[in-house]
Amino acid sequence: MDVIRIIVAIFIPPLGVFLQVGFGLDFWINIVLTLFGYIPGIVHAVWIIAKK
């Protein structure tokens, strides 16, 4: 299941984080990072998925 989340996180980073943690602080941080730049959003999403 983590492979699917990582693939989703590459295309839509906030969705990948949402699938992992729901509407938590990490989700909102990822939205902000994705708005500032797509790459920081991807890095954060993959990090959150790999950490859990």
Reconstruct the topology from this structure.
Layout lengths: L1 H10 L1 H9 L3 H12 L1 H14 L1
Helix pairs in contact: 1-2, 1-4, 2-3, 2-4, 3-4
Keywords:
single chain; 4 helices; 87% helix; 52 residues; mainly alpha
Distance between the termini: 12 Å
Instruction: Compute the CA-based radius of gyration.
Output: 9 Å
Global mean pLDDT:
94
**Class from secondary-structure proportions:** mainly alpha
Q: What global shape is seen?
A: globular
The number of helical segments is: 4
Q: Give helix and strand order, one letter per element, not per position.
A: HHHH
Percentage of residues in strands: under 5%
Strand count, sense and closure of the main sheet? Answer: none
Oligomer class? single chain
**Helix content class:** over 70%
Number of strands: 0
Unreliable sequence segments: none
Protein name: YqaE/Pmp3 family membrane protein
Subcellular location: Membrane
Transmembrane segments: 7-25, 31-50
Keywords: Membrane, Transmembrane, Transmembrane helix
Summarize the structure.
This protein is an all-alpha fold and 52 residues long. Helix content is 87%, strand content 0%.
Verbal overview:
- By secondary structure, this protein is an all-alpha fold.
- It contains 4 helices and no strands.
- α1 packs antiparallel against α4, α2 packs antiparallel against α3 and α2 packs parallel to α4.
- The longest helix has 14 residues.
